[in-house]
Amino acid sequence: MLIRRVSILAVVMIALGSTIALAKPSLLSRQVIAQTPTNLSRPNRAKSGGWLKDLNLTSQQLQQIKEIRRQSKQQIAQKSQEIRQRQQELHDLIAGTTATKEQVRDKYNQIKLVKHQLADIQFENTLAIREILNPEQRQKFADRMYKKNPPARHN
């Protein structure tokens, strides 16, 4: 019985750790750099000019990217808040003594669903930005997204 409880606790801790890791996927973050609403989270970006400057965008392209960001900002903030809230709820369920295994699993699955929804929003924005770029800019955009984490190769 003790081994079973320890095993369950280990699985829950791994699940909670992967939930936190999924909340900030580094590759996805780079793919949708355009989603960062301000430079507060990356103060060095303002100093270097950021990825937008590297693309040599026209003023029309910059305006279009700003509009894409503006349109999705509220949705992204809402989904991010929902993820944080559900992660706290999962934490409370795991720490508590009354939740069943099914309740914990359901909460975990809720978090996965919202993260998937957030990733979809961000991906759609990436596609929208891609559409306004010329071929040379697209290449630079792709190079920037995969600079540190190249896509996994599946053999």
User: Ranges with pLDDT <50 over ≥5 residues?
Assistant: 1-12, 18-49
DSSP helix count? 7
Largest sheet: none
Radius of gyration: 19 Å
For the terminal residues, how far apart are their CA atoms? 42 Å
SSE run: HHHHHHH
Strand runs, count = 0
Portion of residues in helices?
Answer: over 70%
Percent of sequence in beta strands: under 5%
Which structural class matches the secondary elements? mainly alpha
Shape: elongated
Mean pLDDT: 76
Task: Provide a brief overview of the structure.
By secondary structure, the protein is an all-alpha fold. It is built from seven helices and no strands. It has helices at 2-23, 26-31, 43-48, 50-54, 59-95, 101-131, 135-145.
Can you characterise this structure?
The chain is mostly helical. The protein is 76% helix and 0% strand. The chain contains seven helices and no strands. The chain has helices at 2-23, 26-31, 43-48, 50-54, 59-95, 101-131, 135-145. Helix 1 (2-23) packs parallel to helix 6 (101-131). The longest helix has 37 residues, at 59-95.
